[in-house]
Amino acid sequence: MAKLKTQAELRKILTDEQFNVTQNAGTESPHSHKYNQQFSLGTYHCICCDTALFLSDTKFDASCGWPSFFATVGDNVVKEIEDLSYLNRPRTEIRCANCDAHLGHVFPDGPPPTGLRYCLNGSALNFTPNS
Ligand SMILES: [Zn+2]
Hints:
Elements: H1 7-13, H2 16-24, E1 42-46, E2 52-55, E3 59-60, E4 68-69, E5 78-83, E6 91-96, E7 102-107, E8 117-120, E9 125-129
Antiparallel strand pairs: 1-2, 1-9, 3-4, 4-8, 5-6, 6-7, 7-8
């Protein structure tokens, strides 16, 4: 498992937006990230610790403006946290299980077979194309 980087190290390697999203649970503007409409084959890794999180096979166009997936690459690669920041609309936040980086949220309105929609910030991800 990759060694975790300090906040000072992350400051140096991440853009301001990548840092704000992953470390301060920020949200990038909808339709702003190139990964939103990217469907080439490959693996999406955590931008902070490089853990593989999602495969292009599970990516779908949710028309919500953010990269969306219906499954993670495996069990326990992300952790779920109850997010009550919108009082009348509780959400489930997802974080990288390895380094605790904020990734986005998961909603129960995705397509089969899981019925889940992992709604992610492209800024939290790093795409590696299949070779
Ligand atoms: Zn991570």
